[in-house]
Amino acid sequence: MQTDDIAEEDYQRHWDLLWNTQLGIRYHMHMQNFYSKFGKFVTAFTLILSTSAGAAIIATTPEVAKFAAFSAAMLQIIELVMDSKSKTSLHTSLRQRYINLESELSQYEHFTITEAEKFKSIKASIEVEEPPIKFSIIEKCHNELMKVHKLDTEDKQSISWFRRVFGIWYS
């Protein structure tokens, strides 16, 4: 097939799949990093409080000791409910699957409808395992991809400061 015979829709099908795949890679990278850092923070914080040096520091006043013990307990409860270690593992796995898909997509420049359906099916099998999307993070990833591909900034998503700071905590 000559380049002249390739319809614009064939290129667009490829671009759409590639864009969504790269969006998935970035999204799961951010989520993996968040859960990993949170889990490490909780572990480090409770480890410090459980050592003799930490105990000596917090034992200076009963109020400090109570606050530190309460803080450690609350963080452990949040960690238990959040289960950051398994979520880190999940997002690592999903990111790797998207990377594998991107590798396959990079072998093409355009798709027929049939070829696109094959890759959409692979993408759908990844999406089935995804937890609910945190839209503030997906918007951030969208803006990052706009920058990476040097696309028109008027299509960037507007993200309020509140969503930039706290968006990871809610969906």
Automatic annotation (TrEMBL):
UniProt keyword annotations, A-Z: Membrane, Transmembrane, Transmembrane helix
TM segment ranges: 38-58
Protein name according to UniProt: SMODS and SLOG-associating 2TM effector domain-containing protein
